[in-house]
Amino acid sequence: MAVSSPLYLLNCLAWLACESKPSWGRPPACRPEGDGALIYVHKEKELDDVEKRYPAEHYVMVDDKLRILTAMKNIWRDRLTTVFPRQGHYALDAKAVATYPPADLTVGRIGELVNYDLSSFTGSKRE
Question: How do residues 17-37 score in pLDDT, each as one tens digit?
Fold first, then answer.
């Protein structure tokens, strides 16, 4: 399986926060290289557009909101591996976490992803 460059799916609020709060620094998603960023109000509702612009056999989505991961998984099913980093405000909301099914892969912090090889992301584990 060929691997492409990362594509950043941002919601408008995340992008505005990056643009309006320079004191926060510039996380990687706010400074994507090339044209690898798409900005949507509700990224989970724009998967047809993502697929049209960046066709792939399989996608990997990393998000701290299980609601978004679940919505995307319900559409792309086995074509998507969901990754849930347990960091940040949304990821630590016990009620929200209990409401949705677990992601295919859960990590304590997003930085832990460097410890995984490609095969960890190429197959869906959740039905």
Answer: 444 445 444 444 444 445 567
